[in-house]
Amino acid sequence: MLIAPSFVDALVTERISRLPMTEPAFLEFYARTAGRLNGYLRKLTGDPSLAEDLLQEAYLRFLTRARGLENDEHQKNYLYRIATNLARDHFRREQRRPIAQDAGVSLPVDDGGDVWALLAELSARDRELLLLAYVEGMTHKEISQVTGLMRGSVKPLLFRARRRFAGVLTSAGLAPSLANENGARS
Questions:
Q1: pLDDT at residue 64 tops 80
Q2: Which end of the chain is more exposed for a tag (fewer CB within 10 A), N or C?
């Protein structure tokens, strides 16, 4: 059975019209966001290969679902939310799967005692909050949009995550200075 070329053209045109941005706009958006998002996912998951897979899936879902976002900040926050949810889904699937070895995240440690590796000792939510606030530089409002948490919950959760990370650093002999307890910008 042959399909009429005009039908195929109409179908392709209709699908392209549903995309949230043009190809040049997407390429520019990708160039601005892919490096940081990949870094966030690598630190969150501890697995460069998994981070790359999640990155590609996040952009694919972004392109198929991100219609009607007002500006670049909303687009970036929505993309981070997609990526964060994909990572959460992965962690949930891994917890349900019976594994003979340790199911925890293992970040590579260099000979100098990499502080990034110590993040693996935190829960996925604590890692997520700390990375969004202090690596990605997001405000509490942006973090709430990315994670789906209530804005008022972000500050105390970040405080607790910092405290837990300080405990991990202290037990590793890398006690942080607690003089500045300010969180991410509100």
A1: yes
A2: N
Interior angle at CA 63, CA 72 and CA 75, nearest 5: 15
Residue 13 CA to chain centroid, in angstroms?
32
C-alpha span between 163 and 170 (Å, rounded): 10
pLDDT at 96: 64
Angle formed by the axes of helices 23-45 and 48-65, nearest 10°: 140
What one-character-per-residue DSSP string does 80-147 give? HHHHHHHHHHHHHHHHHS--SS--S------TTT-HHHHGGGS-HHHHHHHIIIIIS---HHHHHHHH
Residues 39, 44, 48, 54, CA torsion sign: negative
pLDDT > 50? residue 110: no
Report residue 101 as tokens.
């070895």
Residue matched to tokens 């399909």: 3
Q: What is the DSSP string of 38-49?
A: HHHHHHHHS-HH
Judge contact between 109 and 134, C-beta under 8 A: no
If we measure between CA atoms, which residue out of 104, 85, 86, 83 comes closest to residue 95?
A: 104
Q: Which two tokens stand for residue 10?
A: 């109409």
